[in-house]
Amino acid sequence: MPRKISDRKCSHPGCERGHAAKGYCSLHYGRFKSGLDMDMKPRYRAEIELCVFDGCARQARTRDYCTGHYQQLLSGRVMRPLGWRPEKHLIICSVETCDLPARGRRYCTGHQQRIKSGTPMLPPIAQRDRYWGMHCTITGCKRPYHASGLCKTHQRKTKYGLSAMQLDMIIRRGKCDSCGTPLGIDDFHIDHDHSCCVGPKVCGNCNRGALCRGCNHGIGNFKDSPNSLRLAADYLERYGLAA
Fold first, then answer.
1. What does the pLDDT average to over 179-188?
2. Which pTM value belongs to this model?
3. How far is CA 198 from CA 126, 159, 203, 207, 228, in A?
């Protein structure tokens, strides 16, 4: 048979809740069991009390204070708004075009990282980006940021032990160190001594220069041998094919 629903109400004056145990509803029975004031007004979500500290909109937890201000009260510190920082933390970054707050050594977080990695201090760091900005820092490159202030294409060049500033200087020079052909923003190759570094990463001390695609492939095909290149030049001159 289905269970009969009781019409019995809580015996506490003014309470219309249904009976739960020992003549009380669940709310008043819990208070009776815990020895609390039976007439204490229940705190509904719409009646949440706020912290008594002036200007604080957080919910009061202990002694009419929110958790943060109660901790300040316990420690004996001067009561301040939460999130307050001393005046020294409001110093602006030393770079003229940057208005972000300084974090250390009078530079913002983004410019501190640029100093460590050797990245040019310009272009300015976008406010919406926490560290670098939205674009590659190489002059003339508009590709999106990937890592270390560089786009994905120029980031691959750092395997040669070059900083972002050194890469930017190579691109500004703008010509092949062998034949003088103009180089683009990303159509250049870093030549290094293969007898020093054979693997995919280069130490950076054996770099020789920036070459165009043709010179880089040509020197590689001749196994970096000056003698082989001279014999090839003699061959071309012998048959009158020299440029």
1. 83
2. 0.41
3. 39, 13, 10, 13, 21
